[in-house]
Every structure is written in C-alpha cells, then in structure tokens.
Design brief:
13 helices, 3-stranded antiparallel sheet, Enolase-like, domain 1, TIM Barrel, single chain, 10-stranded mixed sheet, alpha/beta, 16 strands, 2 domains
Length: 402
C-alpha cells in the first residue's frame, strides 16, 4: 500500500476547520485535523506546499518513520504551524491503520483502560446568577464535571462568556477585536463565583476554572489560595508558561490543582513542568502537539511524575480531533479528564462521527480507525471565513495576555 494523494479541505460550518485527507492506492483513506484557530490558512499552505508532495509514494503503515521525517527533516522545527501539520498527517495515518486492521484506534494503542471518558462542559454567564443557571443546566445533562466562568463587574467583556451558551467561539471578526482587562477586578470577583456555586450545588460535581494566562505567578498563587475552600478540580492556565519555572512560585502558595498546556506543541514545552511536578494536568492536544504519536510520549513522561492528562477540547478542534482524542483518552493510563465543547449541528453534519455522550462520559465508538469522516459535498457549502481571536489590553491601554 502506498500514499497516492493528499488533499487539504478548508471549510467553515459555523467556524473554520482545516482537514487533511490522505488517500492510498488501495482505496483506503484517513483524515486528520489541522485546525489552528485564527491562523488556519497558514497550516493549510504548509500542508499543501511542503508536506503533501513529500508523502506521495510512501508506505502509510510507517507512522513513526513519517513522523520523524516531518519533524527531524525540517530544519525549522516545532511551533504551532509545523506541529499542527504533522498532527494532521499522524492522525490520518492512524486512521488508515485502524481501517486496514478493522479495529478502532484505541485497540491499536493497547486497548481500553476505562469504560468511558469523563468530560467537562462550559457553564458561563454575564453574571454569577446566569452562571449558576448554566451550571444547573449542565448538571441536568448528566455532566460530572463543569467549567464555570462569569462576567466581571466593571468589564465589558470577559474570556469564556459567550452569547450562545452552548457553542462558544471567541474568534469573532476578520480583524482582532480588543478587550479590556483588570486583574484586580477579576481577583476580587472569582472567589464569589465559586462560593455561590458550592453554596447552591454542594461538592457533588467537579468544578473547573480557566484563568487564561491572565495572571503573574504570585497573583496566581493568591487566586489558588483563595479558591482552596471550594476544592476546584483544577485552575487552568494561571500564568503564561513560557517561563516554566514561574510555576514554582504558584506551587509555594497553593494546593489548588494546576492544569496547563493547550498551547504547547512539543514535550519540551512542558518537560520542566512535568519533571518537577509543578502541574497536575497536562492539556496538550492531538492537533497542536504533533498527533497521537507525540502525545503518547508526553503522557508517558507525565505518568512518571503523577501528572494526568486533560486535553483541550474546545470547538476550535474539529470532530476529527475529538474522535482521535477520545481513543487516546480511553487508552491512556494516566487519564484525568477531557474537555468537551459541543459542536454546532452544522459541524456535526459535515463531520459524521461514531463517538457518543452519556451520563457525563464520552465513548469513541467501535468504528475502525478514529471513527470520524468528512462529507466533502456538504463541506463545500461552507466556505472559509476570515476570523481572528481577540486581543487584550489593560485599563491603561497596555497590551496584555489574551
């Protein structure tokens, strides 16, 4: 069997997705997600111009060798564009291998370590009262774990608070919109949110919160300490992680569990965080961290240091990535939780899939490969729309982390 064609499909059924289809001379095809939110066309061009021509004629069964070829063979290594492109190839090749074997992907990895994958949904509101109502809605849907975000008094907009409560998409304009941020207002408000959640719902559900890289390490330590009475499942992305050593300061001041890594691309981005046990959950994804092949390496390093997985799973990942992630989650021993933002009906129609939700858990299904496909005819009805993620400024006009 040889790779006979590679095609890049860009579509926008509610938001932009980049999908790589790898075809073989024996009629078996596989698909991989290459979506990089706000920079989709950069990955599409990388695949079309540099990766696809180099794959023609290769044996699709040689997944490890192809991964190393694309990573080590490129002098300009790493980065989100390169690693998202490699991930798309890797995911598609695993999909082909599963189809050839007639087995679901998790069986190829070593079989299931659990019966289902615990997922968390996003409850958000303009104020605490609205967020509480959304927590109740997700609890009613059967979720065991819920992420809670709330608007902040005095700020016109807040990360994680959307117009549509079920389908959150922050990329909202062709040119990035600008938001205003206040750390002081945030630090004063957030403990009130979680006090209200625990007062109304008790401690039956796992509750999570995303800081979204907004704080310095010492500010994150203060927040984590103030949230300790509410026993969060995790505090996500408390500070930018380019400086991995900064997480030592957070550890010195709080026992609130820490999750980080959705923007990481390789094992080197989190090597110190994991080996020094500065985090509790690693959030690297199939699509942005080089595919299942590389994600396995990260997870196996993490297992040595009692760090569990908690992969990013927002709607900027297509159902192709979600399907692959669920097979990985079902297999990996040191699994923690999987983010699950539901896609719109339009997206689900373009990407028919075998995975399903029940009682707070997802299961990838038993279809050969990763169990997700693409309806190209329907995808063509949803052309690409230029869309950018927002940026953040402090109240004095200084640029800040979004």
């Amino acid at each position: 069997m040889k790779i006979s064609a590679c095609r890049v499909i860009v579509c926008s059924p509610g938001r932009n997705f980049v999908t790589l289809m790898i075809e073989t001379d024996e009629g078996v095809h596989g698909i991989g997600d290459a979506t990089l939110n706000g920079r989709e066309l950069s990955v599409a061009a990388y695949l079309k111009e540099h990766v696809a021509p180099a794959l023609i004629g290769r044996d699709p069964a040689r997944i490890e060798d192809i991964w190393q070829y694309l990573y080590r063979g490129a002098y300009w290594r790493r980065g989100p564009v390169t690693m998202s492109a490699i991930a798309a190839v890797d995911t598609a090749l695993w999909d082909i291998k599963g189809k050839v074997a007639g087995l679901p992907l998790y069986q190829l990895l070593g079989g299931a370590s659990r019966d289902g994958v615990m997922v968390y949904g996003h409850a958000n509101g303009n104020d605490i009262a609205q967020t509480l109502d959304e927590v109740a809605r997700y609890a009613g849907l059967g979720y065991k774990a819920i992420r809670a975000q709330s608007g902040i008094p005095g700020l016109a907009s807040t990360y994680g608070v959307s117009k549509d409560r079920m389908y959150y998409e922050p990329a909202d304009a062709a040119i990035a919109t600008e938001n205003i941020w206040s750390t002081a207002k945030y630090l004063d408000h957030v403990p009130k949110l979680f006090e209200a959640i625990r007062s109304r719902f008790g401690f039956e559900h796992h509750i999570l919160h995303d800081v979204h890289h907004r704080l310095t390490p010492i500010e994150a330590g203060r927040l984590g300490k103030s949230l300790e009475p509410y026993r969060l499942f995790w505090m996500e992305d408390p500070t930018p992680a380019e400086n991995q050593e900064g997480f030592r300061i957070i550890r010195q001041h709080t026992v609130t569990p820490i999750a980080v890594g959705e923007v990481f691309n390789t094992i080197y981005d989190c090597q110190t965080l994991i080996s020094e046990q500065l985090i509790d959950f690693i959030r690297t994804t199939v699509v942005h961290a080089g595919g299942i092949t590389h994600l396995r390496r990260i997870a196996q390093l993490a297992e040595l240091y009692h760090v569990r997985t908690g992969s990013h799973g927002a709607t900027d990942l297509s159902p192709v990535c979600m399907g692959a992630a669920l097979h990985f989650d079902l297999w990996v021993h040191n699994f923690g939780i999987q983010e699950y933002m539901r896609h719109t009906p339009e997206t689900d129609a373009v990407f028919p899939h075998a995975y399903s939700f029940k009682d707070g858990y997802l299961h990838p299904g038993e279809a050969p490969g990763h169990g997700v496909d693409i309806d190209e005819t329907l995808a063509a009805k949803h052309p690409y729309k230029s869309s950018a993620l927002p940026v953040n400024r402090l109240e004095d006009g200084s640029m800040w982390n979004w």
